[in-house]
Structures
1.
Amino acid sequence: MIDRLQELGKEALEEIKQADTVKALDAVRVKYLGKKGPITEVLRGMGKLSAEERPKVGQKANEVREEIQQQLEQKTEELEKIALEEKLQEESIDVTLPGKEVKRGARHPLTAVVEEMEDIFIGLGFSVTEGPEVETDYYNFEALNLPPDHPARDMQDSFYVTPDMLLRTQTSPVQARTMEKFKGKGPVKIVCPGKVYRRDDDDATHSHQFMQMEGLYVDENVRMSDLKGTLEAFVKEYFGPDRTIRLRPSFFPFTEPSVEVDVSCGICGGDGCRICKHSGWIEVLGAGMVHPNVLTYNGFDPEKYSGFAFGMGVERFAMLKYGIDDIRHFYTNDIRFLEQFKRV
């Protein structure tokens, strides 16, 4: 796969070199960096690789993507400059007059973070799956081992459209729907990004609408050590190779055993500071082994299959990585804030 990725990189750079218009460059970008491009196709086959080969292939894929992106940006600037010079020569205008600056948009920071997370998990053999934001009571609760009297069903926590329909409170229903489609035959290895909704008072750290990235891996002989290894690889790739994780016992209705996952503080290096409340650790996500009831509800034999699941808030990971102190910045569309992420 590494040879194939190198081959694709060379082909892309050659096509960029030969492109003579911005439109042609955009076609190259879509061809090689799009979700249906050959690089993504190669990564989708990583599930067949050994655990030792996957990180190497994932790292090579990221290097090839970055090289292609850099060359695209450089060639775009060159073509735009040439086009401007040709236009100035053709038109009779006073080029000494001051012009108006054209404001150019960029990816929203949350979009950038989701795409980065997706790339990391694709490199670990996961595929990206999405589902509806207006969900049924069954997939949002019952299929996830949340009985009718569970507190999460309270109207104070959820936005109901009808007695049986609501705005999803988590992206876990996508996991249930996907397991159901596999009809009891593994492996299932997916991540599910998307918006979720809960009744909450908006403040610096809470919002009634936010984004989640959840993951699920169901197969024969899946262990807690697989969960820890996956999350540790993700954290090191996202935050940096010097960061570590720890697992603490917790409770979630859809996993057993369940854990809270902490990452070592990047400010103090684990010594303790104001950011980590002098503990050296920052809580980032919840995880655990898929509850046998959830496997049964969704067609899998818990005697044969096991699995792990995890869920993280995208805004929290963005805030930790970029030092953002208020979740509301992501949704107020303040240009001064958004302009800081033009190159993210």
Note: The chain has a mean pLDDT of 88.
2.
Amino acid sequence: MDWVERVLAIRQWSHHGERAPHKPLLLLYALGRYQREGAGSIPYSAAEEPLNRLLREFGPPRHARSTMAYPFHYLTSDDRLWQVDTDDGPGSPGPRVGLLRSAHARGRLHPELAAALDADPGLLGRLARALLDANFAPTLHADICLETGLDLAGAELPAAVESRLPPRDPAFRERVLDAYGYRCAFCDYDGLLAEVPVGLDAAHVRWRSYDGPDDPDNGLCLCALHHRLLDRGVLGLTPDRTITVSGRFSARAPVASLLVLDLSGRPARAPRSGPRVRPDHITWHTAQVFRAPAA
């Protein structure tokens, strides 16, 4: 088993498509530290707040108040990826925050993984890309890299990742944009550059990394802004396809209110042809991505 297969095989709690990206977020944080500082140890006390912020920002809503103490401890059980030491010697004291703090727990990439990263300069990028693509919507990758300090310029996407995702339909974007008349389903933006649509995306309501198909009934034509806000959980849909806005979102400038807050309660634009978004895909997004409660 190579290193990409190992990070893709990490054990994560899973039930009916629920998200639990705690271990991937910890590994991405550790890879960012390695890229900047080398393979030194990471004290839990120093990493606690940035790790918990990653979970709040990019984890599912139901984990908004949980901590990263569990993955800090339990990632040691996966195949040569992570190890924890304390002042008393090797081994994690357990998954409780108080124990990790009092024992001065320190985590680090497993020495075998660190040696492999030293020997292959391209491995870090492949591992990070694998973790991102297997666990998060593409619109979130740049934000996660910014938060973890990762620079993935030129990093390749390993073939092993695509083999684990639903087959990609190259016609998905065109089918979705055409169905909505090349207009954002939330704001009616319909920009063209030399007669070519610009700033419009085919957004997956249920992410591909969580079995979301490339079917029009899982797609919305959205402008780039509203696509990103949908994937961040700022925007969502009710089963009758009314737009919802997270009550956690705030804005100071009038233009932000106009572009986001004023969408609350509006019906999403219906496709001019083809199916509407399926209710079960909306239910998944509401439970796994949308930052409840709605405004």
Note: The beta strands are 42-43, 82-86, 89-90, 106-109, 192-193, 196-197, 200-204, 219-223, 235-237, 243-245.
3.
Amino acid sequence: MTTTSTRVPYEPVRDRPVRWGVVGPGRIANGVVRDLREQCAADGVLHAVASRSVDRARVFADEHGAAVAYGSYLELLDDSDVDVVYVATPHRQHHQLALAALERGKHLLVEKAFTCTLAGAEEVVAAARERGLFVMEAMWTRFQPTVVRLRELVAEGAVGDVRSVRADLGLRVPFDAADRLWDPAQGGGALLDLGVYPLSWLQMVLGGRPTRLDHVGSLAHNGVDAESTLLWHAEDGRHGVASCSLLSPLPGAAAVFGGEGWIEVPPRFHHPDRLLVHRRRDGRSVESTEEVVAPARGTGYSHELDEVHRCLREGLTESPTMPLDDTLAVMGVLEEALHRLGITFTEDDAVV
């Protein structure tokens, strides 16, 4: 991980709960804040929520006990009592909101996909590093107890040297032009909404960026990407396969294959409660299968919130588990796949 800062590091948050502001009080934000309130109350508290509709913000604030509800995003970003902003708006709004928050000295947790373009992600990362502020993509999968244990098993050589990785995530979503998932104006499509999960899984295990990417996919009749399968070639000859779809309910499974066995993560791998370690005695027959059960706490968002709180207390600008270089690697693959389908997104710079 490479982190640089030309400014004095920020003052760590100690001796009090971290104060959160939420921008975009939708479904995911509701789950995240519920875990904040029910699982992480000793470390963090919801201070403010902002929506373009002040009534919607007030309903969310009343439900979750926020002190303040704002009818504009900038009002929340200007609130001096907010330590960290959770950005949960549609993808195309992340870039400008993140930059505006960083300009005001706020730390950030940004929902996936981090932005709609690689250039937008690079600009946010550069701004965060220049200001010495903490920023992390909200890839909750990496912090799930089962996934933490999987990384430990891989590092311990439980299945030998890793050779390949697979992951898929798909839903059958009936076409509806008004649905965010099918709306190109909101960054809709399978890749940014679903593909980010299996691609982040591949990047987590293989590391770095692919030396070559093979891709097949299809478009909906309105030009939105509907499904994709990608083959990630790593520099050392290893590879990974990731699939996503809005047309088919893919299993949502993942696996890591090594020279002495494999680790299977049953559906759904992006918030799993268990894994299976299959070991081979002679390279052919299965010697043993071990089940590891490690359920998440609460809804499952609590673990990424724990990481934000830990980093802010220790004065870190990036999470060692979800560093910004990993986010940039995945954004680069997402953008390359989109471009191969003829899709070029832009960021929504009119959001603030």
Note: The chain has nine helices and 14 strands.
